Predict the structure.
Amino acid sequence: MKLETPAHSAPGDSTLRQAVAPVICYPVDGLARPDLAPFHAARAGWRRVSETLVPPREARCFDVPAGHFFRITSVEGPQVGDLNLWAAGDLSERFFSGKTRALHGTHLSSGDRMWSCLPYLRPMALITDDSLDWYGFDAFGGSVHDVIGTRCDPYTHNLLGGGQYHHCCHSNLSRAVADRFDLPLHAAEFAVHDVLNVFMCTGFTRDTGQYFMKASPVRPGDYLEFFAEIDLVGGLSACPGGDCSTLHSSDQAACHPLLVEVFAPLALPVGWAAPLANGYNRTHGR
C-alpha cells in the first residue's frame, strides 16, 4: 500500500518514466495453447468413480489418477473453495500458484494449467471447462478463480483482529492433510500451500492496489472442471467466508458444501501424453 502523500517530490521526467509501456514478464508463445476438443470428446461415456462432499467450513482430500477428470461443483448455494494439489506419493511436489499466475494471469479458466513447484515445474492439471467463463472481468477489475489470494489463515486472523479461529481454509486443509496422510497436525500444516480460489471473485483496487473480494457469481450447478495430467491428491476447503461477499473467516457467513466428482474416461484424450518433470539440469552454474 502506498503512502497517501508521497514523501518525495516527482522528478522533472516523471511523466516520461510513468509512460513507459509494460512488457510481459513471461511470454507464453512457446507454450502451445491446449486444444480442448480432444478433452471434451473424451468425456463421452466417462464413468464417475468417486465423489467427495466437502462440508461447510471444512476440507476434504480426494485422489485423481492421471488421465482422469475431476469437477468441483456448487450444490446448494454460493460458495467459494480453496484448492491445493499435490503429486500423489510426493508431498514435496505441489501446486505453484505464483508461477501459474506469472504464466496465465491473475485468474484461471478453460485452457489454463496448474503448474507444480520447483524443481518439477510441470503441468499438474488442465482446466477443461468453466461454467463461469462468461463473467470475464467486471467494471471493478474483478474476476473468478484467482491465484492471487493465499488462503484465509488463523495467523492473519489473529494478527488483524486477535482471537483463535480454527476454520480458516489453512486450518481446514491442515486437518484434511493430517487425516489423508496420517501425519501429525503440525507436520501436515507444512504441506498446505497457496491455493486456487475456486469460484471466488477478486481483484485489486484501482487506487491502492489492495486485494479485494466481492460476492461470487457462482450458483448451484456451476462447476470448474480439470483433467489430471499426473497422479494427484487434491485438498479442497469450503471457505468460511461463504460467497465472500462481506465476511471472511467467520462463523456468521452463510456457507454451503462443495462437491468433488472424479470421472474415468473410456479412452485418453487423443494426442495427450503425461508430462515429464522440468528438463533443467539443476547444476545452477556449478
Observations:
- Residues 92 and 184 are 17 Å apart (CA to CA).
- Helices lie at 14-18, 37-41, 97-104, 154-161, 169-181, 185-189.
